[in-house]
Design goal:
The complex is a heterodimer of chains A (111) and B (115). Chain A contains no helices and 9 strands. With 111 residues, chain A is an all-beta fold. Chain B has 1 helix and 11 strands. The radius of gyration of chain B is 13 Å and the shape is globular. Classes of the chains: A mainly beta (111), B mainly beta (115).
């Protein structure tokens, strides 16, 4: 399974944009890039996913590099409720489609 | 639909006892996954069901662990002869079709403490 590399932690101020980076240099052509986040004592929550093109939804935007070896999750205006561990995951289409989690980025949001 | 439901939320058991957890996925989701998460780590894949068929099991799933999904609806995860190393959060996730395409919905987990 292809692996991802994320910073262990990041800090942001409330109401400012946050850019969470992820490197995935061994990504294959059919791997989807997923982002999930996990609040304390909760299960992971789906944020966004994409294949090649940039994606936007109500929660965030996903910017994917042209060579697909990296991506960035963008939270446009961080709130205190966005403080969580953010996981960048590659998912290969196939029989199982299981997610292989790393240790993620712990995002702290300061008021 | 209230999402993926897991029961109980917390379980404390003595070493050597058997425990069983239940997961109720979103009703139209045909795929169901179990994960285990220890403190400070990301969730680790345990097993996967498509409808009632268990199609993949991780090496982490020792012979003390068994999972079922009768009739392709709810699923149970049983741990026999629990050990202290089994203490973890057990998470269930479900998806419709290929989760890689549509995303996965996770439950809030069952936190197991073996004393």
């Amino acid at each position: 399974d292809a692996k991802t590399t994320q910073p262990n932690s990041m800090e942001s101020n409330e109401e400012e944009p946050v850019h969470l980076p992820c490197n995935h240099s061994t990504i294959s052509g059919t791997d989807y890039i997923h982002w999930y986040r996990q609040l304390p004592s909760q299960g992971p929550e789906y944020v966004i996913h994409g294949l090649t093109s940039n994606v936007n939804n109500r929660m965030a935007s996903l910017a994917i590099a042209e060579d697909r070896k990296s991506s960035t999750l963008i939270l446009h205006r961080a709130t205190l409720r966005d403080a969580a561990v953010y996981y960048c995951i590659l998912s290969s289409p196939g029989a199982t489609n299981k997610l292989i989690f790393g240790t993620g980025t712990l995002l702290a949001v300061q008021p | 639909d209230t999402g993926v439901s897991q029961n109980p939320r917390h379980k404390i058991t003595k070493r050597g006892q058997n425990v069983t957890f239940r997961c109720d996925p979103i009703s139209e989701h045909n795929r169901l996954y179990w994960y285990r998460q220890t403190l400070g780590q990301g969730p680790e894949f345990l097993t996967y069901f498509q409808n009632e068929a268990q199609l993949e099991k991780s090496r982490l799933l020792s012979d003390r662990f068994s999972a079922e999904r009768p009739k392709g609806s709810f699923s149970t995860l049983e741990i026999q002869r629990t050990e202290q190393g089994d203490s973890a959060m057990y998470l269930c996730a479900s998806s419709f079709g290929a989760g890689g395409l549509y995303g996965y919905t996770f439950g809030s987990g069952t936190r197991l403490t073996v004393v």
